[in-house]
Amino acid sequence: MFDRYTMEARRVIFFGRAEASTASTGSIEAEHLLLGLLSEDREIARRFFGSSEAASVIRPKVAERFKGGPVIPTHGDVPLSEAARQVLENAAAEAEQLKDFHIAPAHLLLALLRDKESLAAEILNEHGVTEDQVRQYLLAQPAPKGTIEPSMDAAMIQMISGFWISRAIYTAATLGVADLLKDGSPKSAADLAAATRSHPEFLYRMLRALSSVGIFHELEGQRFAITPLAETLVTDRQGSLRYFAMTELGQEHFSAWEEFPYSIRTGGLAFTEKFKQPVWAYYAAHPEHAEVFNRSMTNLTGWATQAVLMAYDFSPFRRIVDVGGGEGSFLAAMLGASPDARGVLFDAAAVIAATTRLRDAGVEARSEQTAGNFFESVPSGGDMYTLKMILHDWTDEESLTILRNIRKAIVPGGKVIIIEAVLGPGPDAPFKNFLDLNMMVMTGGRERTEPEFRSLLEKSGFRFSRVIPTGSPMSLVEGLAE
Q: How is residue 406 annotated by DSSP?
């Protein structure tokens, strides 16, 4: 069915996915398709709603409709609800009935009107949009000329050119454009250029391109407003992805990927081939890059922490040791959820010396900070040891060394929790599989399957217990010290 969608209709579905991924719902609903339609097709927005900014007007009503539902991650594919699936099937049927060879945004509008039980249809009716009006609009459109570009070619072109979007996101994140728009007031490209010391015309062209994929919203007069996707790049937003965009799409990460073919040909490490030293030595020599990387990891902690705390109860434990705990955000969250527990933040001396996270969270009195090297030893006496996104940095042998050191230190009956992406089928599979390639490029580590985690735990003296999924790409792999 999707082979016959015009590029505009495909973008409607893309925008619908973006709307759903920032809302409290587990799937793309008919209402998200309506928002996507009004964001993509300004002609329809103006004709039937009287305003090119109709999406921003009705977004609060849609947000209220899904308030309080389960939060889903803001990446990857979002499943279609049955209602949204029916809308797409009805759009195809409308196109067929009108003897049209392609499915355009107006067919989607007609199908949304027929979804009588949805809020989308209610909104359309409130604005006086009727099936007959839309059908007459469709019939009045000039007949399409030529044929549609083969869908597989279009899909491949989109994948090949994906780095264009990535580098534009990196530049927008580096300039802090989302911060300048976070108050909700649209600003002109000229004003944004002045604030970021950028070239006005070139900045406008970049923002126009990013608006076409749902990042920022272009208004008349070369003005731009923030969108739900762009809000993820706001610096002080909880779980902000600004520094993640900067570290992954620029600086050392982007350059290291230039040597990805070297890794595939030789089995060698792309980062070392590019920079002639391992990544951790590079960060030690370039503290300004290390700072961006550390902030990105802290932001990712915020992205996954709430999902982890909802999936696992840390309150029964009395001494929680966060191994490789970085700046301490995750340990602070665990202690916040476990009022009777004490915690140990364990990491390299330079990381420990720089952090104030435990103090800022008000749990410093129940915690201690210990510097060291987890390849040599870890603090002893804990009944819970956590490894959040640590083992994927290392080979199997190196990971076994870390786990064996924890096995020596843990009290009898204690548990170890490995928080990582577990490879396997599902909507997050593309993200996890390409994260695995990123580890191949950067550190020589890897993401692992459940059997591979089981093997690591058993070889290091733990009993594999279970894998617990969360509302994020991360899962919890639990091992028992029997």
A: H
User: Distance (Å, rounded) from C-alpha 392 to C-alpha 477?
Assistant: 13
319-323 and 223-225 as β-strands: parallel, antiparallel, unpaired? unpaired
How far CA 17 is from CA of 25, 130, 479, in Å, comes to 11, 25, 36
**Residue whose C-alpha is closest to residue 436's, from 420, 450, 417, 425:** 420
The domain limits of the chain are 2-145, 162-237, 270-480
Residues annotated as catalytic are 392
pLDDT tens, residue by residue, 73-105:
444 456 778 888 888 888 888 777 766 667 888
Q: Could you say which of 1.10.10.10, 3.40.50.300, 1.10.1780.10, 3.40.47.10 is the CATH number of the domain covering 2-145?
A: 1.10.1780.10
Give the span between the Cα atoms of 375 and 381, in whole angstroms.
18
For the four alpha carbons of 386, 390, 391 and 392, in that order, the dihedral sign comes to: positive
Tens digits of residue pLDDT in 128-164: 888 888 888 877 776 554 444 456 777 788 888 889 9
Specify the length of the chain in residues: 482
Question: Could you tell me which residues come within 8 angstroms of residue 36 by beta carbon, excluding any fewer than 6 positions away?
Answer: 11, 12, 13, 14, 15, 16, 17, 18, 19
Query: Which residues, at least 6 apart from 265, have a Cβ–Cβ distance to it below 8 Å?
Result: none
Dihedral sign, Cα of residue 212, residue 217, residue 219, residue 221: negative
Place of tokens 């990123």: 438
Specify whether domain 270-480 bears CATH 3.90.320.10: no
Pick the CATH number of 162-237 from 3.40.50.300, 1.20.1260.10, 1.10.10.10, 3.30.1180.10: 1.10.10.10
